[in-house]
Amino acid sequence: MDDQTIGLILAISSSLFIGSSFIIKKKGLKKAGARGVSAGSGGHSYLTEPMWWAGMFTMIFGEVANFAAYAFAPAVLVTPLGALSIIVSAILAHRMLNEKLSVFGWLGCCLCIVGSTVIVLHAPEERPITSVHEVWELAKQPGFMLYASGVVFFSLALAVYVAPIHGNTQILVFVGICSLVGSLSVMSVKTLGIALKLTFDGDNQLLYPETGYCVLVVVASVITQMNYLNKALDVFNTAIVSPIYYVLFTCATIVASGILFKDFQNQKWAEVLSEVCGFITILAGVFLLHATKDDCSSSSSEGDEDAWTLALAMALGGYLASQETVTLR
pLDDT (tens digit, 9 = 90+) per residue, 127-152? Predict the structure, then answer.
C-alpha cells in the first residue's frame, strides 16, 4: 500500500471519528444535564459521564489520524476531506438526536461526497521528503517566505488595528485571522508528521532544531486560532462561522501547501481545474448543510433562500466547469 492510499484512509477515518465524536459527546451532555446542572448553565456534571468521555476519546483518535494523514498525503487531499466529518455528524444527528435533515440538507451531503470523490481522483502525488532539513530549505524559498510574511503581517494588522473596531460586526476579521494562521499551523503539523514518520523508520529527526521550531509554530498558531475562533463563535451564529471558516481555512492551507511543497508542479492544468471544481462542489454542500440544519421544522426565511440559491449556483458552476474540463481534455 502506497503512502497516498494510507493518507487517504487516515483522512477518511479521521472524519468518521471526529464526526461521530460530536454526537457521542452531545448525548453524554444530555444525559449529564438530565441529572445535574447542564454545561450551558455552567455545570460540569458531564465530567462524570462515561459517554461524554467516550466522545472525547473518539475525537482524540480522529485528531491523531488527521495528524498522521498529513505525513502520508498532501494537504490538498487531506484538508478538503475534513468536510466529511460534517456529513457524518449531520447523518448521525438525524438518526440519533432527531435533528432532522431537510431535502436540501441531504443534497448538501451528496454534494460533499461528490466533491470529495473528485478531489481524491485528481489529487497530486505526495512529494518525497527525506528530512526535516529539506522542508526547512523549501520554507526558505522566496515564494513561501513571501507567503509566511504576508500571513504574519495581515494577521497582526487585523488583530491590532481592525479587530478592536470592526471585530464584533465583521465576521471575516476573526475568522480571517484563524484561517491565515491555521494555514501555517498545518504546514508545521505536516512537517512534524514527516519527522515522526522518518524517525519511526530509523532516521531520527527529533534531534534537528528545525523540529523544535515547528513545535513552537504549532503551539503559537493553535493558541491564536482557538482565541479568535472562540471570539467569532461568541459573537456570530455558528451556522455562519463554520462554513466561512472551513472555506477560508481550506483555501489558505491549499495555497500554503502548493507554495511550500509545490503540490501542483507536476500536474496538468486540467487536473488542477478538476480539483478546484471538486472543492467548489464541497463548498456548496457545506453551505447547504449549514443553511438548512436549523430550519427543518419551519418555513424557509428569505436569508436561507438566498443561501440555498448561492449554494446551488456554486454547485452548478462547479458542474459546468467540470464538464468544460472534460471537453477540453
Answer: 788 899 999 999 999 999 999 999 99
Query: Is the CB of residue 7 less than 8 Å from the CB of residue 77?
Result: yes
C-alpha 94/C-alpha 112 separation (Å) is 17
C-alpha cell at 287: 453551505
Alpha-carbon span 144 to 42, nearest angstrom: 44
SS3 string, the chain, reads: CCHHHHHHHHHHHHHHHHHHHHHHHHHHHHHHHHHCCCHHHCCCHHHHCHHHHHHHHHHHHHHHHHHHHHHHCCHHHHCHHHHHHHHHHHHHHHHHCCCCCCHHHHHHHHHHHHHHHHHHHHCCCCCCCCCHHHHHHHHCCHHHHHHHHHHHHHHHHHHHHHHHHHCCCCHHHHHHHHHHHHHHHHHHHHHHHHHHHHHHCCCCCCCCHHHHHHHHHHHHHHHHHHHHHHHHHHHCCHHHHHHHHHHHHHHHHHHHHHHHCCCCCCCCHHHHHHHHHHHHHHHHHHHHHHHHCCCCCCCCCHHHHHHHHHHHHHHHHHHHHHHHHHHHC
Count of Cβ atoms closer than 10 Å to residue 103 Cβ? 10
Max Cα separation, the chain?
63
Q: With bands split at pLDDT 50, 70 and 90, how would you rate the model's confidence at 301?
A: very low
Note the pTM of the prediction, 2 decimals.
Answer: 0.77
Task: Evaluate whether 86 touches 284 at the Cβ level (below 8 Å).
Answer: no
Q: Please check whether residue 106 is in contact with residue 296, taking contact to mean a CB–CB distance below 8 angstroms.
A: no
Asked whether the beta carbons of 155 and 181 are under 8 A apart, the reply is yes
The mean pLDDT of 104-123, rounded to a whole number, is 89
Rounded average pLDDT over 245-249: 87
